[in-house]
Design brief:
34% strand, alpha+beta, 6 helices, 8 strands, 184 residues, Aminopeptidase, protein-N-terminal-alanine acetyltransferase activity, Ribosomal_N-acetyltransferase, binds coenzyme A, eight-stranded mixed sheet, 35% helix, transferase
Length: 184
């Protein structure tokens, strides 16, 4: 109902607990692509887990502490974005993203992230959007670069996952930089 057109074929919409079955089917299809980087992908294995995950985000939205959105391509849920953190008091938020493999390569995430950034820094007046990724995630880094986000540094051995403790790059876009954005 409340949808933003991303391309002729794709829409960005809120992703809500009533869509748990659709979300599970999507995660099952996308799991191989996203699980190497996204811990929740291996936890969502049934409809109850999918609903719990979406309910946690619904609660975070109620508290103005996080939000989750899906991307539908030709009517199929193929990925999404979330405000993993949303700290109004500190003026800061972090965006996370994912896509099924067959939806990669069309700019769906780059374009959707522009909407989320505009809302966070423009509508909500936050001062800082963060983007975090492991240094080997070249597709994620390419999005940050396309968005004009600046690499601030690397948190060393901060992300334990799959038996390894990974480094995490921290990228950010500040409000004055956003006013100079390329996608106005
Ligand atoms: C990270 C991830 C979302 C990136 O997906 P993606 O398809 O590369 O990103 P986008 O949707 O922004 O698309 C960019 C691609 O579309 C192309 N493109 C086409 N039109 C475009 C447009 N208008 N704007 C931007 N890019 C466009 C770009 O050239 C790029 O193509 P390439 O793959 O040949 O480099 C995806 O690889 C993924 O889900 N990975 C696993 C989970 C993950 O790592 N999440 C992030 C954790 S930090």
């Amino acid at each position: 109902m409340f949808a933003t057109k991303i391309t002729d074929r794709a829409e960005l919409r809120p992703l809500e607990p009533w869509q748990a079955a659709e979300f599970l089917a999507h995660v099952d299809k996308a799991r191989a692509n996203i699980e190497p980087y996204i811990p929740w992908a291996e936890l969502i294995t049934d409809e109850e887990q999918a609903r719990n995950f979406l309910q946690r985000y619904a609660q975070r939205q109620t508290n103005d502490e996080g939000r989750i959105y899906g991307i539908w391509l030709d009517g199929e849920l193929v990925g999404g974005l979330l405000f993993r953190t949303f700290e109004v008091r500190w003026g800061s938020c972090e965006i996370g993203v994912w896509l099924a493999a067959h939806a990669e390569g069309h700019g769906l995430i780059t374009r959707s992230a522009q909407h989320l950034i505009d809302w966070a820094l423009g509508t909500r007046g936050l001062t800082r959007v963060e983007w975090r990724c492991v240094p080997t995630n070249t597709r994620s880094i390419a999005i940050a670069q396309r968005l004009g986000v600046t690499l601030e540094g690397t948190l060393r051995q901060t992300f334990p996952y799959h038996g390894e403790i990974h480094d995490l790059q921290v990228w950010s876009l500040l409000h004055p930089e956003w006013t100079q954005r390329s996608w106005k």
